[in-house]
Amino acid sequence: MHKAGFVNIVGNPNVGKSTLMNLLVGERVSIATFKAQTTRHRIMGIYNTEDMQIVFSDTPGVLKPNYKLQESMLNFSNSALSDADVLLYVTDVVETAEKNEDFIEKVKRQTAPVLLLINKIDLSNQDDLIKTVEEWQELIPQAEIIPISAKSKFNVDYVMRRIQELLPESPPYFGKDQWTDKPARFFVTEIIREKILLYYDKEIPYSVEIVVDSFKEEPKKISIHAVIFVERDSQKGIIIGKQGKALKKVATEARRELERFFDKTIFLEVFVKVDKDWRSSDKELRNFGYNLD
Q1: Is 142 exposed, middle or buried (0-12, 13-18, 19+ CB in 10 A)?
Q2: Other beta carbons less than 10 A from residue 272's beta carbon
Q3: Would you say the pTM of this structure is higher than 0.70?
Q4: In what order do the strands lie in the sheet with 265-274?
Q5: With contact defined as beta carbons under 8 Å apart, do 93 and 129 qualify?
Q6: pLDDT at 34
Q7: Are 167 and 3 in contact (CB under 8 A)?
Q8: Is 178 inside any structural domain?
């Protein structure tokens, strides 16, 4: 008997979805920082055993969209509701359900099994946690509620066991040696964007998109040419920094991370260009690979 299925991870920004995804897949597939809106695309990570294939899918955090880019991000989350064999709805001990009532209503209509994971329980106490569990159980009655801590890996193994039990019988959807549906270039853009999220404040990281113009792989090295797009000339100046020091720091940290990721020597060139108001342009968003349908 072989089991296979799609396990889709949804929830608000900043509740630890990406960290959980990486723990479940066992690979560094989805970038995880302390900033909201880290994940912009739907990212698949594939876990394979001899008799099982679990296709995990991390989606952007659910939010009320303020511009076209956020509309695309919400589309990715909505699409995850339609093809899940098991749905993981991730919340934490801090957030309240009122933030996304419309999306929760869609979750309540799910026919697939729903595992509702309450993350960051190390920030709570037993009485408050019991109250939180009761509130969510009333809100989504069909959900199986599991308190977890992705940071300390508490109950993550149990979540994995429950997923395996709930998977349908099916042949694998992907090759057994495949661990993601994304090309190598995608992870280059994600790692560079992660460093920008870590090193720049306020609006700058959310006004940035990265494109890999050139990716030349050899047996022991990879040469990469990447462009950081921003919306304003002033943002370009901030990204580059005085005497280019800020951009050099991002490029150096990204290169080190890429060398760990690919296990090869990396030659990385990074440039900055202005693409005015790209976050609100249908044409530009489609060029960058976002789903607007």
Answers
A1: middle
A2: 18
A3: no
A4: 209-217, 221-230, 265-274
A5: yes
A6: 41
A7: yes
A8: no
